[in-house]
Write a structure and sequence with these properties.
The chain has 290 residues and is of the alpha+beta class. The protein is built from five helices and twelve strands. A hairpin with a 5-residue loop joins strand 11 and strand 12.
Amino acid sequence: MTQHLKLSMKDARRRNTGFYLIALLMFLFLALSPMQPWRGVANSITQGYATDEILLAGTVVRLDGEDSNKVVSASSDEQSNVLGVVINSNDSPITITDDSSGVFVVSSGRFEVLVSSANGSLSSGDPVSLSPTRGVAMRADDAQSYLLGTALESVDFSESSNILSTAPLVESDGTTINIGISKVLVELGLRPNPNYKDSDGVPEFLKELSSKVAGKQVASSRIYAGVAVAVLTILVAAVLLYGAIRNSIVAIGRNPLSRKSVLAGLTQVVIMSMIVFICGMLAVYLVLKL
């Protein structure tokens, strides 16, 4: 009887082990299989937003700085703040929205995006970033800090049949030209441009910090001004504290009976230094924000 029970327990353990092994193999097969239909669904989840603009499908947008429930068309100086691309509501199987939403925005997946000829024609596989025209993308190069995604189609702007509309573009010399606008399928994926070359000399960490403080991309001149104000503020506060502490130590050493009045004066200087520091940081914020 005991021997039979032991054999039964061994058989049960073998069956359980076999079941777990089969389940593990099935999980690995599904996880590593190139045909994973749920990936396309996850990448197609859209969010509904209100807007005060007329936004066509394919327009690149960002959140409204005054209302996080609204979106506006994004410009090339707001690359790091891009939210996604406007699509038609029936282009995604899953939508997170409410009755007040006016447009639907997606940040990943394969969708058509408005592109311009501002940086030349597009080939399949080219990186895509924001163009100078609001809400419109273009072929990216090493001058753009952020990428919107990768083009999955080609478009030759030299052929008029590929141009849906035109828009004015002011060049660096002040002249205005008309650029073509079309639509291409893009694999959306917001990310920093690995080939970006900083032409203004501002360290990347300062740009990221300034963008977080201001809630938008900040011009290099404002970043330099903010750094100068911050350094000056810290120096002034440090000099005040150092002088007050040094003089207090000397005064107490010469006349220990004056300790109480000396500490009171030191406290006033510390408070003044804190006020100077806070005012300086506020000035830095205003320089970056306005």
